[in-house]
Design a protein that fits this description.
about 800 residues; alpha+beta; Phosphorylase Kinase, domain 1; Transferase(Phosphotransferase), domain 1; Thrombin, subunit H; six-stranded antiparallel beta sheet; five-stranded antiparallel beta sheet; 49 strands; about 30% strand
């Protein structure tokens, strides 16, 4: 699954012969290599513009020297390095496997015994790191590799010598929001205790599928890490004590890695990585990488090497709590007053938003002092590239390689112009292919760096428009009619065909969420001092402000016609507002505890609300009246639950199962096993996950490598296809065909009977989309490919 060397790539680095490319990241390119003695290694090189920086080269020199001293059973050994080379490089042991982030997304959270065992492995690895005089500083799920021999801690790319206080500038925030320790954010002294904090956060992710500080923008996650308690509601008792201790705000109160190791050690540790479905996922990844044999055209490209993992963790954690009940109130109490906006509102101060569990948004945000505030702002600027209003880019960072119009053939390939540009998100809607990525600015300022969004013709990948955007990959973008809404990357509302902005973007903090209702873009964001509006409604057609006001909650609302249902985490503030006017329609005061997810059920004229205790409530959209309540056996898992309606059936995905209910009565219809929410329910507009359905059927991964088609009403299996490997992305449907990717293959199957129509050799598929013309795949971070439908020539604009 390695990619071939490209023109300009070196053939050797030191004595290491390079065999191919493993991937590219923000620091440089990662190659697969072989030593003179035959050992296979991963070689990380540094981008030329970084190598030209004396400050960076000095830091690389020190860290490479210290990293070579790291030895341990659960680390990736640094074997060689040359920091003095014109292109500095570092070689580590080559470890085929999958990241913990990928493993949890594909197979679900770890069992308690496995989580405890993982804690011991991470503690043992960090002991080795600290023994070498280093602090890792970026332990996160994508820096934990699950191999056939167990977990390994990887990527010392930003590790720092414990005694070194002179190489990081003031205001630097290095690490990943959701896993970074408070002292790294506030700019105080960073010691090995920061790695212990990250270890605790990683264990929360392994056990629940989410960050201990929920899901939000980077600035919000940074604020929560400093000022708020972690949410450990769904962390198993077996590890909750050690996790709680690791996540202490005060570094002095945290245990040492040795104490964590003693608390999690097991005389007979389980070999949890050798149990299916994780075993199949790991072995499939290892078998798919053939050292020395580059992938052929159409065969994919392996960009899942340690340093090619995405930098920002967008943990999908919900935040449920407990329950009680009253009926809805009429609009008189008006808990969420709004005011009409005849013109766009003045821009509030662009400080970091902070809402979670209601309190910071209601009472105002107490700013971190000095370095803390500077760090938050510096981080936000670094992630956004310091851009304000959207600008049209002059230069295209992507190039098109034409293919064939034959049925089933590769139609075209869209790839970055150079190895410093990435593609990290793909969507097909409204006859357009939408791509987000990051283009690293050339030395001297040429080329235009930062994030970008581009719309291409599906027929030939020709450019419709190209615009500047924030660098963080979008998780909420989507299309409503002819308008692209991508507020999480700085594009509030743009015309899908031309890229023209609908009105002027308000200068406000990045939205916590956004949704579209009746032609109105509604976003929730926090203001720093708490005295400004936190809900903003903008007309998608004209860009004019419609209304502002109220309190923004941490999760997206549910929309049914003009009714917009908002609920806070604690469940004590649930209200329904009019999308166009902002007027309150009805509200609940003291609803029955926490709300973990919301969904609209148009066919039943109601909303569904999922509580953390597994209570599923159905309320009328017109007045909030109760219809029914059901209780999920086993409750609902925070961070790995989703709720959706398909026709007259309401589906709940949680805890490795999907449950179906009748909204009018709350009667359970059926329940079936499923593998991984991320791999079966794709995220749509506003980041809301929805199942893949077609013709009255649900299409999902029932088991590792098994695509199943279920009747939505009865739950009966219509067909199941064993495809081999592990499904790593949700299937996608168009024109009576379902496309599914496993391992190194993508297959087209008939929706009605599962008959195999065709298969393609395509590896490392990260995103999958389809339309009537065929299907589209994002290959790692290096390419987008379009393939024609098996029986039609390409269509589309």
């Amino acid at each position: 699954m390695t990619g071939p060397l490209l023109p300009g790539d070196p053939e050797r680095l030191g004595s290491i012969r390079l065999l191919g490319r493993l991937g590219a990241g923000g620091m440089g390119t990662v190659y697969l290599g072989r030593t003179p003695g035959g050992l296979t290694v991963a070689v990380k090189t540094v981008h030329e513009h970084l190598a030209a920086d004396p400050h960076f080269r000095e830091r690389f020199r020190r860290e490479a020297a210290a990293a070579r001293a790291v030895t341990g059973a659960h680390t990736a050994a640094v074997l060689d390095a040359d920091p003095e080379s014109p292109r500095p490089w570092l070689a580590t042991a080559y470890l085929p496997g999958v990241t913990l982030r990928h493993a949890v997304a594909a197979t679900g959270p770890l069992e308690p015994a496995a989580g405890r065992s993982l804690g011991a492995a991470l503690a043992e690895a960090l002991e080795a790191v600290h023994r070498a005089g280093l602090v890792h500083r970026d332990l996160k799920p994508s820096n934990v590799l699950i191999t056939a021999d167990g977990p390994r801690v990887i990527d010392f790319g930003i590790a720092r010598a414990i005694s070194d206080h002179g190489l990081t500038g003031a205001g630097d925030v290095i690490g990943t929001p959701g896993f970074i320790a408070p002292e790294q954010i506030t700019g105080t002294v960073v010691t090995g205790a920061a790695d212990v904090f990250a270890l605790g956060a990683v264990l929360v992710f392994a056990a629940t599928g989410g960050s201990p500080f929920g899901s939000a923008t980077p600035a919000v996650l940074l604020y929560r890490a400093v000022h708020e308690d972690p949410d450990l509601t769904d962390v198993p008792e077996e590890i909750r004590g050690v996790v709680t201790a690791c996540l202490e705000k005060d570094p002095a109160r945290r245990p040492t890695v040795g104490q964590v190791l003693r608390a999690t050690a097991d005389p007979r540790p389980p070999l949890w990585w050798r149990t299916d479905p994780l075993r199949s996922l790991v072995l499939g990844e290892a078998a798919g990488r053939v050292p020395g044999k580059p992938a052929e055209e159409g065969g994919g490209h392996d960009a899942s090497a340690p340093e090619a993992e995405a930098e920002t963790e967008q943990a999908q954690a919900q935040e449920p709590k407990a329950e009680s009940a009253t009926g809805p109130t009429r609009p008189a109490p008006a808990p969420a007053p709004t005011r009409p906006l005849p013109s766009p509102p003045p821009a509030p101060a662009a400080e970091p938003p902070a809402t979670r569990r209601g309190e910071p948004a209601r009472r105002g945000l107490l700013l971190a002092g000095g370095g803390g505030l500077a760090s938050l702002l510096a981080y936000a600027l670094l992630r956004s590239g310091g851009k304000g209003d959207r600008e049209e880019r002059a230069e295209d960072p992507l190039r098109v390689r034409p293919g064939s119009a034959r049925p089933g053939a590769l139609r075209w390939t869209l790839a970055p112009e150079d190895d410093r540009t990435t593609v990290d998100a793909l969507r097909v809607a409204g006859g357009a292919l939408l791509v987000h990525g990051v283009a690293v600015q050339d030395v001297g300022g040429a080329g235009g760096g930062g994030g970008y969004v581009t719309a291409r013709r599906v027929r030939d990948a020709g450019r419709r428009w190209l615009a500047d955007a924030e660098e963080t990959a979008p998780t909420q973008w989507g299309v409503s009619g002819s308008v692209l809404a991508a507020a999480d990357v700085g594009l509030d509302a743009v015309d899908l065909a031309t890229g023209a902005a609908h009105g002027t973007r308000a200068e406000r903090p990045t939205p916590l969420w956004f949704t579209v209702a009746s032609g109105v873009l509604i976003s929730g964001s926090a203001t720093v001092n708490g005295d400004g509006p936190t809900l903003n409604a903008v007309d998608l057609r004209t860009g004019a402000g419609r209304w502002t006001g109220g309190t923004a909650e941490a999760r997206p609302p549910a929309v049914l016609g003009r009714s917009v249902l908002l609920a806070d985490d604690g469940g004590d503030d649930i209200r329904c507002v009019d999308a166009v006017s902002g007027e309150l329609r009805w509200a609940y005061e003291g609803f029955e505890g926490p709300v973990g997810a919301l969904a609209a059920v148009p066919e039943a004229g109601c909303f569904a609300l999922l509580g953390g205790g597994g209570a599923l409530h159905f309320v009328r959209a017109r007045d909030g009246g109760r219809l029914a309540t059901a209780v999920l056996e086993g409750g609902a898992s925070a961070g790995s639950s989703a709720l959706a309606a398909v026709g007259a059936t309401v589906l709940v995905a949680t805890g490795g199962r999907v449950h179906a209910y009748a909204p009018a009565t709350g009667r359970p219809l059926w329940s079936a096993g499923t593998v991984g929410l991320d791999t079966s329910w794709p995220a749509g507009t506003g980041g809301v996950r929805a199942p893949v359905t077609a013709g009255g059927s649900l299409l999902h991964w029932a088991r590792a490598g098994v695509l199943q088609c279920l009747d939505l009403r009865s739950g009966e299996e219509r067909w199941a296809a064993t495809l081999g490997g592990v499904g790593q992305v949700p299937p996608t449907v168009a024109g009576g065909t379902v496309y599914a990717a496993t391992g190194e293959l993508c297959r087209a199957l008939a929706v009605n009977d599962g008959a195999n129509q065709r298969s393609w050799q395509v590896a490392d598929v990260r995103d999958l989309a389809a339309d009537a013309s065929g299907w589209y795949a994002r290959i790692g971070t290096t390419a987008i490919r379009a393939y024609n439908h098996t029986a039609t020539a390409p269509r589309g604009s």
